[in-house]
Amino acid sequence: MTRVFLATVSFLFMAIIAVPGMIIGIGRPGAILPKASPDVGSQTSIATYLSPKVRLFVHSKQQVVELPLEEYVKGVVAAEMPANFELEALKAQAVVARSYVVSRMRSFGGKGSDEARGADICDSPDHAQAWLPEEALKEKWGPLEYQQMWKKVSQAVQETEGLVVMYQGKVIDPPYHSTSAGPTEDPAEVWSSSYPYLKSVPCDYCAASPYYKPQKVSFKLSDLLSKLGQGRTIPVAALRTGVSTVTTSTGRVRDIVAGTLRVSGVDLRKALGLKSTKFTVSLSGDQVTFEVRGNGHGVGMCQWGANGLAQKGLSFAEIINYYYSGVEIKHLFSE
C-alpha cells in the first residue's frame, strides 16, 4: 500500500512539473511540442489538444467566431481548391493556407484583420482567403459527395497538421492563385513590393484549367469609361485613336493606354472584373474586347499548377518548394 501511495505521489509530482513546460510557448512558433516531418503525415498530437484558435470574421453573420486552427484550415482548403484534386495538391494548399492565417494571427504576433476588431482574418477571398463551414459545403457538394469530399480534405489537413512555410525562421505570408497560364508573376508588378521567397517560375502545369485558354470579354467604350470612373472627363472619341498595352516580363498587362487614358493593369482588372491581367485588347468601333488568360494575380502557388505537378508525382513539399524559393516546411511548434 505504501509503495502504491509513493508511486502515485511521484507521478503527480512529475506531471505538475512537466505540464507547465509543455504549455509554455503556446501561441508562438518554436514552442516545445512534437515536430512533424514534412514527408510523414502526423498523427493526433499534443498540438491537436492545445490547438491555437483562429478568430474569424464571417461576413454573412457579421460576427467573429472562434475555431481551432486545423478546423479553420479544412474550411479554407474545401473553399479554395477543388476537392477532386490530387491529395498532394490538397496537402500543399493546406500548408499554404495554414501559413497564410498564422502570419496574421494576433496570438503569433500578426496584425489581425482590418475587417473587424479583434479578428485574425475574414472569410472573403477579396480580402483574405475563402472559408466555408460544413453546412455550406454540404450544399456545395451535395449529400452524396459530401462525405467523400470532406474525408479527403480532412485527410489532407490531418496529414500536414501544424506544418507551415518558413523563410529564415519566420512564417511567410504565401499568396496563391487559381491559374497562372504561364510563368507566375513578380509581386513587385502587382503590389509594388518584392519578397525574396516570391520569384517568377515557369508554369505550364495548369493547362487543364478552364482558365488556361483565352476567354473573350467585351465592353462598349462608354461602359468601360463609366466603370473606370472616367466617363465625364475623357470623351469616347479620344479612345478611338487606338489601344495599346505595356506588359510585364511574364506577359501580363502593367498599363493600358487608350488616347489620353492610362490605367494600370491591376486597376483595370479590378474595375472590369477580369479574371487576370494576362490579356490582349482590341478596339472595333464602339467595342473593346479583352482576351483573358489565367485566373488570379499570378503570384505564388498556382493551384491548378500544383495539381498538375501532383499528377507528375511531386509531393506537397516539392510543390511548395517549387513555387516559393528558399523556404523550409516546419512544424509550427517545433524548436
Please tell me about this protein's structure.
The chain has 335 residues and is an alpha+beta fold. Among the domains are: 46-173 and 315-331, no CATH class; 215-293, no CATH class. The chain contains eleven helices and 14 strands. The protein has helices at residues 2-23, 46-49, 69-80, 87-102, 134-141, 143-158, 188-191, 221-228, 265-272, 303-311, 316-323; strands spanning 53-58, 63-68, 121-122, 163-167, 170-171, 176-177, 215-220, 243-247, 253-258, 261-264, 278-284, 287-293, 301-302, 328-331. The strands form five sheets. Strands 2-1-3 form a three-stranded mixed β-sheet. The protein has a three-stranded antiparallel β-sheet with strand order 5-4-14. Helix 3 (69-80) packs across helix 4 (87-102) and helix 4 packs across helix 6 (143-158).
What tags apply to this protein structure?
3-stranded mixed beta sheet; 11 helices; 335 residues
In short:
The protein contains eleven helices and 14 strands.
Proportion of strand residues = 15-25%
Strand order of the largest sheet: 2-1-3
Give the total of beta strands. 14
What do the pLDDT scores average to?
84
Helix vs. strand class: alpha+beta
Evaluate the radius of gyration: 24 Å
- Bulk shape: globular
Counted by DSSP, the helix tally is 11
Percentage of residues in helical conformation: 25-40%
State the order of secondary-structure elements, H for helix, E for strand: HHEEHHEHHEEEHEHEEEHEEEHHE
Low-confidence stretches: 1-48
Largest sheet data = 3 strands, mixed
Cα(first) to Cα(last) distance is: 42 Å
